[in-house]
């Protein structure tokens, strides 16, 4: 997938994830805010759904932030192969988990159905650009590992954490 194609695909996949998140918010909101105000007793009763929604919202925000990072690098002419692979891996992994289940702990997984989402409502996370990003996940991981093994870290990693790089090389 070429750079512009990847950036477009991640933008569309992020829109799909945001739409699914809005639907999940509405369903969880119905459970804990039946009259429009938060009900503490209902929050306690629906703790798993509320906790799961928070995880889902965090994943969508992480996608938003990593896409912003990639867009900034692209504007600055710094969006290379390593950065593209990092973006693709992040999107592929998080989209797969949003659609199939997010591990909140070693023994607790929140699945879309636990939040009231139907298969039809999460379909955008399994189709189109999202499906392409998930399908290429294994290959992208292998390619990034090979680049790192060759000593080619992402260009922005050195700038983002200069002390780590200096201490690692001394």
Summarize the structure.
This protein has 170 residues and is mainly alpha-helical. The chain has helices at residues 3-32, 40-45, 47-75, 81-100, 119-122, 128-135, 137-149, 155-160, 162-169, and strands at 102-103, 109-110.
Number of helices: 9
- The stretches of 5 or more residues where confidence is low (pLDDT under 50) are 156-170
Average pLDDT, rounded to a whole number, is 90
The quaternary structure here is single chain
Strand order of the largest sheet: 1-2
Alpha-carbon distance between the termini?
37 Å
- How many domains comprise the coordinates? 1
Helix share bin: over 70%
- The run of helices and strands is HHHHEEHHHHH
CATH architectural category:
Up-down Bundle
Strand content: under 5%
Helix/strand/pairing category: mainly alpha
Name the overall outline. Answer: elongated
Q: Looking at CATH, which topology would you report?
A: Butyryl-CoA Dehydrogenase, subunit A, domain 3
């Amino acid at each position: 997938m070429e750079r512009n194609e990847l950036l477009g695909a991640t933008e569309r996949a992020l829109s799909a994830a945001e739409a699914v998140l809005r639907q999940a918010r509405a369903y969880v909101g119905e459970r804990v805010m039946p009259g429009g105000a938060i009900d503490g007793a209902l929050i306690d009763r629906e703790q798993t759904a509320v906790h799961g929604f928070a995880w889902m919202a965090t994943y969508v925000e992480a996608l938003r932030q990593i896409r912003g990072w990639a867009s900034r690098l692209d504007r600055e002419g710094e969006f290379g192969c390593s950065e593209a692979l990092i973006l693709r891996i992040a999107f592929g992994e998080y989209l797969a988990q949003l659609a199939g289940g997010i591990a909140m702990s070693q023994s607790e997984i929140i699945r879309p159905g636990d939040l009231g989402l139907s298969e039809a409502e999460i379909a955008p996370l399994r189709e189109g650009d999202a499906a392409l990003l998930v399908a290429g996940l294994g290959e992208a991981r292998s390619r990034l590992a090979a680049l790192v093994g060759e000593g080619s870290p992402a260009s922005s990693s050195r700038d983002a954490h200069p002390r780590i790089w200096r201490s690692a090389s001394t």
